[in-house]
Each structure stands twice: as structure tokens, then as C-alpha cells.
Amino acid sequence: MKTIINTPLAPKAIGPYSQAVLAGNTLYISGQIPINPETGKVVEADIRVQTKQVMENIKAILTEAGFSLSNVVKSTCLLSDMSNFAAMNEIYGSYYTENPPARAAFAVKELPLSVLVEIETIAVK
User: What domains does the chain contain, in order, with CATH numbers?
Assistant: First the structure.
């Protein structure tokens, strides 16, 4: 059985998907992009600011589902350009200071709304 997770503290889905799905004790968070949930607009800034917004969106969804960053076991980071990796990694790492999750990070041709970063997350209790 699955439970759909939604919170107004993270951006609304911009397509036919849910913010997150809880299946048993595993939470699957859809790829989050740097949209400010209050304005519904992309945070127009550098990779550091965009990554911070993505991580705050992930935290809001985790909280809504009763999880925390310490429950995250896997992240996939998609970048518009690998030249942004070091800066993204710096901000990302500030959210996982102990026992960071497994992760993949790679560049793709293009991301939704031409953002610089998208991160999907899996958490387990």
C-alpha cells in the first residue's frame, strides 16, 4: 500500500507525479527543483542558492512524512553542468554532516524550467 505525501511547504508538482510516496517504511521523494513554494517561482540565482532551496524543499517533504535528513539513504543529484558540482556539493554536504547517504551525481542535457540542479531522495525509517 502507498500513501501520497504533499505539503504546501514544498513546490506543487508541475506534472503527473506526487511530491513523495510512502511505501511501507520507505519514502520516495520526487526530484526537487529550486522553486520557492511561497511564490511558485524558480529561485533565480547561482547554484549554491538553488541547491539550498532544493534541500529546503526536501526537508519540508521529509518533515511532512514524519522523516528527517538522518533517514535519507540515497540521493540522486542532477546538474545542468558538471562545473557546478563543487558548489552544489558544498551546500549539499552542509545538510548531511554525519553519516551522509549514498549518492549519485551527474550532468544531464537539460532540467525542467532550465534550473541548475534537481535532487531526488529516498529515505527509510
Answer: 2-124 (3.30.1330.40)
